[in-house]
Structure formats: C-alpha cells, structure tokens
Amino acid sequence: MRKIHLSLCVFFLFLMKINAQEIEAIKGETAYPFLLKEADTDGEASEKQPVFVFLHGRSLSGTNLDRVKRYGVLYAINKGQDVPGIIVAPQSRGGWDPDKVIEIVDYVIAHYNADPDRIYVCGMSMGGYGTMDVAGKYPERIAAAVAICGGGSSQYASNLTQVPIWLHHGTADRAVPISESRKIMKAIKKVDPEADVSLNVIKGGTHGSVERLFHDDAIYDWMLKFKKKHKS
Predict the structure, then answer these.
(1) Per-residue model confidence as pLDDT tens digits over 140-173
(2) pTM for the complete prediction?
(3) Are 73 and 122 in contact, with CB atoms under 8 Å apart?
(4) H runs (alpha helix) in 161-224
C-alpha cells in the first residue's frame, strides 16, 4: 500500500512538472500574439522571475503562432536547454515594432511574476534588428540584449550605449552580411568608446548555423549578469 502511495506521489509530481512547463498562447490581449512559458521556480513562487523576449526572423512571420517554436529559445528548450526565467515569443507578420514589443513586456509584468528590472531581449536575423530597435527605443527598460545575425539603426546609437549588447554574426552569412553587425557596433562606439557592446565573430558561420547559440548557456548566463537599477 505504501508503494502505491509513493508511486502516486511521484506520478502527480511528474504531472506538476509537465504543467509547469506548458506553453501558453496569448492572443487578442496585445498587438502581437505571443507564446509564453512560465519559469520553473521549484516552489520559489514569491521570487520575481527574469523575462527573456525572443524575436524571430522573417521566415517565422505570419498568423500561425506555432511557427515561433521552429527555432530560437522555445525550440532550444524543447531540445533540453535550460533557460531560467519567463520566456516570451511574439509573432509578427513582418518587421518588429518596438512599441508593440514593449506592450507585451508590460502585459507580462502585469499578469505574471516578472521582474521589471530583468527584462532581456534577444533575436535572430530580422529579430536581431528588432532586438536593437527595442533596446534602442526603450533603453531604460532593457537590462541586456543579444542580437544574432542581424544589424541595427544608427538613429538609436546614442540610446544603445545605455544597454549591454552582445552581437553574434557568422563570416559566411550570405543573407545578412557581418558588416551589418560591425556597422551598428561602430556607430555605438563612436558615441561612447566605453559602451558595453561586443561582437562575437563566428568563423564560417552561416545565417542558419548560428541558431545553435540558443542551445548553449552562454548567452543566457551573460544576460543574467545585468539588472536595471530600480527607480523609486
């Protein structure tokens, strides 16, 4: 009888683990629909959680929200990558509007146990450009940003000096040349030579192969080093 009881406890704990990792589809609440995975807190529900916003590239644009799982943070989690925080993955129909991305961030802060001082944004290709636009327009909101095989607009160069940024680009990228990442880094450094922006040059990396960065701890650990100072 005791063995049955223990087996039932293990079974229900397993179900709780699965439920904790369920991905919600949020539609009609913000301009962009988005997928959200809550943090696996292991009982520490009172502690506010960091938020990782993933912005996809052009190939995942459209109206089928499940497409956002095809690569990036949610795909990496599905393959076993541990990302300690709330994961948010919106879908656009083409291009990223930073105002609409921040609307999602505000929604998540209002409805989930999110830490407003630890909002991180990362993206690939078109999402890399979107990442730089979000951090550039709202530097006071973003604790750190990672842009992979993208670029950025020099109009935000001054604001981007206020956000730690880690750029990644492959030398064999034919879709978006590495010169795009070099260009925005140069614009930021021109404003402030001491700005916390760096470029990881991936020798032989193609536009698609750099997706592997989402399957490694490095970019998440790096972002988590930074936190916005609370303003009272």
Answers:
(1) 999 999 999 999 999 999 999 999 999 999 999 9
(2) 0.89
(3) yes
(4) 179-191, 217-224
